[in-house]
Amino acid sequence: MTKEGQQSPKVFLRDATGLTRELSATDALVGNLAVMGIGFVFLYAFFASLLYPGVNLPLTVVIGLLPGIVIALVYYFFSVAMPRTGGDFVWVSRVLHPSLGFITNFYFTFTILTLTGSAAVFVASFGISPMLSALGLIYSNQNLITLAGKVASAPWDFVIAGVVLLVCIIPQFFRAKVTYRTLIVIFAIVVIGSLVTIVSFYSASPSVFSANFNRLSGMNYTNVITTAALPSGFSVGVLFTGIVYTMLSYAGYNYSGYYSGEVRQVKRSQLIAMFGSLFIFALFMFLLYESAYYSMGSNFLSSLSYLAGTGSSSYTLPSAPVLNFLVMFSNPSPVVVFLSALAFIGTCAAAIITATFISVRNFFAWSFDRVMPSWLTNVSSKRNSPFIAVSVALVCTIIFAALYVYTNFFSFITYSVATIYIAFGITSIAAIAFPFVKKSIFESSPVDVKRKIGGFPLISILGILGLIVCSFLIYASILPAVTPPPSGPALIGLLAYVVVPLTGVVALAIYAVAYYYRKSKGINLAMVFSEIPPE
Length: 535
What we know:
The protein is mainly α. The protein is built from 22 helices and 2 strands. The protein has a two-stranded antiparallel ribbon with strand order 1-2.
C-alpha cells in the first residue's frame, strides 16, 4: 500500500518498449532460415549416420515435416494472438503461470546461447579446417593439412570463434534493419554454396566418387564398407529414432515468434516466415541428403562416419567426414571446396546473428516484465538498439565458446534437443489451455486463431498434438543410443545428466528472487503478468 501523495509503481517498466516494427516478412523468413542453418546439414549428415546406421536421412526430412507443421501452427496462432517480443515467455506466462513462462523461455534462451558459442567454434573445426584438409589432398600439400589441424585446435579455434562472435554481434548495436541487411547478404552466400554442393554431388556417379576417393584419400571405398561391417540397407526401426537430428535441424522455423513485436503486418509476415522457412529448409535438407546418397551411397556414408566416430585406425582422412569435406571426392575442384566451406561458415555466422538477436529480445522481455533488472531494457535513442542486452549476450557467447574449447563441460550439448522441445512442449500445453483460460484474448484474436473443429478450438487440438511430438522427441533424445554417456571426469558426467532439470531449477530460483524483490518494492508481479505487455 502506498502513502498518500505517492504514485503506485507502474505495472510495466514503461508505457512502450522502445522497439519498433522495422522487420518485413522477408526479414523474418530469412531470420528463421538462418537460425535453422542449411549448412548445419553438412555436419548432421555425419552425426546422424554415425548414431543411426540404417537410417534413411531423406525420408526423415519428409516424415519430420508433419510434426514441424503442427508446432509451426501453434507458434503462428500465438504470434498473431499476442504479437509481442518475448514469444513463449509472454504467451505461457499469461496463460499458465509467470514462473512457467520464464522457465520455458529460459530453457530456450540458455540452449540457443550455448549453441551460438559452439557454432562460433564450428567455423574453425568444421568449416576452415575441412576446407584446408581438402585443398591439401587435392594439391598433395602436407603444409595445408598440418595447418588444418592447428586451426581446429586451441588456442586458434577459440581465437577464430572470438573474432566471429565480434563480427556477427557488433551489427546488433545498430538498428534491427542493419542486422537483417547483414543477415540477408550472408544467407545469399549460404544458398549459393549449398546449391554448388548439391549440384557437385549430383554431377558425380558412385563410380566417379569411388574412383576419386581411392585416388585422393589414401583409403579404399570398398574397404571402408567391409571394415565397418554395418548392416546394409534401410531399417524402419532406426528411422523413427533417427528423426531426432532432423527435428533439431528443423528447429528455428518458429523463432520469428520471439520478436513479433518488431515485425510489420504480423499475421501475413509470420505466416510467410514460419511456413515458408519450414518448406524451403526441408527442400534444401532433402536435396543435400539425397544428392550425397546418390553420389557416395548411404552405406558408404554410414560406414565412413562409423569409422571416424569410433576412432578406428582404418580412418586416415585429415578431417571429419562432413559433407563440405566429402564433396571434394565428387568434384575435386578448389572452387567447389571453397564455396561449400563458405556455405558452412556463412551458416554459422547467420545462425549466430539470429540466435543472438532472439536472445537479446528475450532478455528484453524478461526485464520489461520486471523479472530481470531494468537496465537490460535500455534502448539507444540513436540506433534503436537494446545495447546493454546485446553486450550481455556477447559476453555470454564468448564464455560458452571458451567452455566448449577448453573444457568438456558442454559434452551434454546433444541434450539441446531435449531442452528445446521442453520449451516447445510447455508452449503446447499453453495452447491447449488458451481458449479456456484467457477467453477474452482468445475471442478478440483473428479469425484463424478462433477456428474450431467439431466445436473444439483448433489451437487446443494442435497443442495436444504438439505435446505428443515434443514428449517423443524429449524421450528419444535422452536415450543412451541417441546421446551416449559423456566421457571425462565424474563431475562433468553428472552435470551432463542433471543439466536439463538443473536449468529449470535455476530459472525458478531467478523468478522467485525477482518476485520477492519486486514485492518488497511494492510491485506485484501477478499484476504485471495479468496483462499483455504494451508495444
